[in-house]
Design goal:
This protein is α+β, with helices and mostly antiparallel strands and about 375 residues long. It has 14 helices and 13 strands.
Amino acid sequence: MSDPQGYTAPGFAAVREAFADNFARHGESGAACCVYRDGRVVVDLWAGVADHATGRPWRMDTPVIVFSVSKGFTAAAVHLLVERGALDLDAPVARYWPAFAANGKGDIPLRWVLAHRAGLAAVDGALTLDEVLAWDPVVRAIAAQAPNWPPGSGHGYHARTFGWILGEVIRRVTGRSPGRFIAEAISGPLGLEFWIGLPAPLMARRARLRPPAAGLPSLSEMLGADSLTARVMNGPSGLFGYDEMWNRAEILAAEMPSSNGVGTARALARFYAALIGELEGRRLLRPETVARATEVQSQGADLVLMLSSCFGLGFMLQPTIAPDGGRRCFGHAGAGGSTAFADPEAGLAFGYVTSQLQFDLAGDPRSRALVRAVYASL
């Protein structure tokens, strides 16, 4: 059993026990968990190994890629720009990005992108990895293509295009890349160790991912490479899987605002704490903005995930985000286990990161155990 390091407030010992138990029973390798309640830290734990090749231990400031947890930060950046008057959720994306109007996309409003209703979950055309990481080629391809289904007629998880479409809108209205805008408007002011586009000096500090157990069939093997689900989750051009590729420096250094954010559990919890209340005198978004962002926009059968999902304007809602949490929880999970959310009714903000990728349709047993322990401690 790995011995957790860090802090638990009185009454939260059950979270430390659940965290340790994840290493003993659920195949945890290296991880961290942080919880805020009413703007104050009540859990801040880490344990395990950050790099199995060298034996480097996980430390209090070890960041790791968190995949789609990144979407919560990108959504918050959009809502911040709405507050500043730079964006309108009901305006067509093409108002800010004229080329996006091609092939019948001229009337797609910004809110449909946030709610996974834009019908642009898969990127058409052949792209190389270098072109995807370079930004301009992939956003040009999205602007030129036709929708995968009639926009607004249903919802399907925009696994990577969510970040490219919203990121390009952010870039066009601010003159800054989405990663830079998030760094300057969110991470910097809140003191968050979270990046979309990991700076080179931090590469050596980050944890290295461990792929899931061998023997799991790929989506292409299960559903066919041409299925919408495989095209979305492995695309563009079948370039992406959930394996060692995400340890490559060029992938971590690129900006993929839906997929490659790197951060600590503490950063995730602080971020959500600042969305539901004041954090050291600072609040990220107005209460009415958060309320609007967490109203149900898409619910039911997901055309990509092929199961039921529930989304607000950029955030996963219940029961998608935290089945063991409160009814008003909102946030975003990431592939392989990492997750972060807030519960405004309980005053909770939760962040969990892991380097050991696991996939379970019933929900990750590690994060679920931690969430149950948090609520049992209230």
